[in-house]
Structure formats: C-alpha cells, structure tokens
Amino acid sequence: MFSYIGKRLLAxxxxxxxxxxxxxxxxxxxxxxPAEAYLSAAHIHPxxxxxxxxxxxxxxxxxxxxxxxxxxxxxxxxNFGTSYVSKEPVWQEVAHRLPxxxxxxxxxxxxxxxxxxPIGFLSAVYKNSVIDHLSRLLAFIGASIPQFWLGYLLIFFxxxxxxxxxxxxxxxxxxxxxxxxxxxxxxxxxxxxxxxxSVLEQMQEPYVVYARTRGIKESVIMGxxxxxxxxxxxITGLGMNMGKLLAGTIIxxxxxxxxxxxxxxxxxxxxxxxxxIQCYVFLVAxxxxxxNLIVDLLQMAMDPRISRKGSTSP
Length: 314
Prior knowledge:
CATH superfamily of the domain at 98-261: MetI-like
Distance between the termini: 16 Å
Helix content: over 70%
Oligomer: single chain
Number of helices: 14
C-alpha cells in the first residue's frame, strides 16, 4: 500500500512541472508584453527607456529558462508577485477571495451528490418507471442548458418574479442556493446517468444472483453490495470534476456577482494582469493533481486490489 502511495506522490512531480511549463510558455507566446501591460495598468506612457527598466525589474530581460526556474521557485513559496492593478501581493488577494470560490464549489458538489445518488440509484432499480423517465429528462436538461443561460433563468423566475432568493452577492445561505444550483445541474445530469448505468451493470453480475438465491433481502443486496461497487466510477468523476468546478465558477461568479477568485481572474484577463493569471493557472493545476490523488487513495481504500496491482506491475 505504501509503495503504491509513494509512486502516486512521485508521479505528481512531472505533472506539476509540465503544467507550470505549459502555462509559462502560453503566457510568453501571448502578443502582450508583460512590461507594457504593467505600464498600461499603471497608466504610464510606455517609452523605450521605461519599458527597459520595467523588464529589468521583473527579470524579463533574462533567458526564458532562467525566468521559468525563478518563476517555479517563487510558485513553490506561494510568491506570485504583485498585481499590476491593485499593487497588492497576488497571494494576499487570492487568499481573501478563494474561500468564497471554495464555498461555492463545495456546496455545488454536495448538492450534485445528494441529488444524483438517490435519483440514479432509484432509476436503475425501477428501470423504465416514472422516476427513470424523469431522471432522463433531468439529465437531458442539465446537459443541454449552458450555465450562464441557466443562471439568468433562475434569477428571472426565482428572484425577480417570485422573490424567493437574492439576485446577487454573498452573505446568507439564501445567496448560495441559485449559484450552487446553476453550477451543480450539469454534474447532476452526468452523475445520475453514470450511477444508473453502473448499477444496472452490477445487477447483472453473478454475485447478485447468488445473493438472491441465498435469500438475502433485496434492500441489503442493493444497498450494501451493489451500490458500494457501482458508486466507484462516480467517485472517479467527482475527483475529475472538482477541478472543473473551481474553473467553472468563473461564469457563475460573474452572473451572480459572487466575490470569488473567478471574478478576480476575469478582471485580470481584461486588465492583462499576468501575475494573477499565473496564480490562477497554478492553483487550478494543483487542484486537479490533488483531487486525482485523493480519488486514487479512495479507490484503493474501497478496493485493495488496486494497490496490489500497482505493486506487482512492471
């Protein structure tokens, strides 16, 4: 088990280096000069002398490999520099906004799990019933409606017309309902169909037939055995989508004026605030890496054969 965990931890290093290198290359392939972007944000006329001074101050006049190594060392210390617009340390501003984004992502994930697990399970148990047809309709709607359009629809009907929830901002639990629902509906559609398919596959396995012939209650078979195995692909999907949730909050935060990291990133794009963009890419990459590691460990805990396969593989 420990050797498997060690291999997974070592595999993170090249993935992290590749993600940081790719983001570094893409930023430097941009036609926007970082020094010019800094002077533009500071409302300073970019003369050649001033541009040369700023490039020297930020180390932009050094070779690219030197800039990458220095940037990587700073990222490891969570030092992303100073924002071009606010003149404040980027990590300080991110730490102030990140809890709001994490709150929105976590609540959306909880909502998706609490809704999709019972619906997906029941739609498989009662195949071709009313609840199965309703789950198909829900999955179709969730997979078809864009998030920004769904957000505006919820605002129009539930906030403007019915006055049930606040329109924008962050404060009470009521402010969290509409953005969480907007962000989680697509996940509900995916997880519902994924769990339904997985449960139907497990119901055809020989151990289910054998358990029924032994007289074990159907509720015990479905709840203790079938659901435990069938939910494994869903856990994998949760790990993959946690990073997508943090990245996907950009649109939802903009629609609902949610004061999170996503809106801060959008403002950074418009203002060409490169240190903030680098920080965002770094955090999203780290989120994907950590979530995938957690999912692997959960899968190993649920199925110890995974660690044995990892230790015996060449």
